[in-house]
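Entry 14. Ran structure prediction on the chain below.
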Amino acid sequence: QVHLVESGGGLVQAGGSLRLSCAASGRTFSTYAMGWFRQAPGKEREFVAAISWSGGSTYYADSVKGRFTISRDNAKNTEYLQMSSLKPEDTAVYCCAAASSFNTVVAGDYEYWGQGTQVTVSS
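Output, structure tokens:
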């Protein structure tokens, strides 16, 4: 069982940066691949990024590649999403999730979810 809690969201101007954190409870954090998804109002949930169990491999949606960086610290049971060069279209609720398989962009493959944190990018 993994319980996930996101933090770090907020309001930022276009071009700015934010770092999201996802704190996980449980001793099995390091055995799960982790991901970030986002959902904007009126839109479907969208894959953002994923990271392998060790952190050695990462995968990004084309829309964020080169601007966002996913990372994790297994000693702290925490996953991060560093977001730079933010655009108004990045506005969404961002959720972290845990999966047994790495490199999946399918939300249904993720077993545990956080409640989400709001990111708003003003133009």
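The two ends are 40 Å apart (CA to CA). Will compare against last week's run tomorrow.
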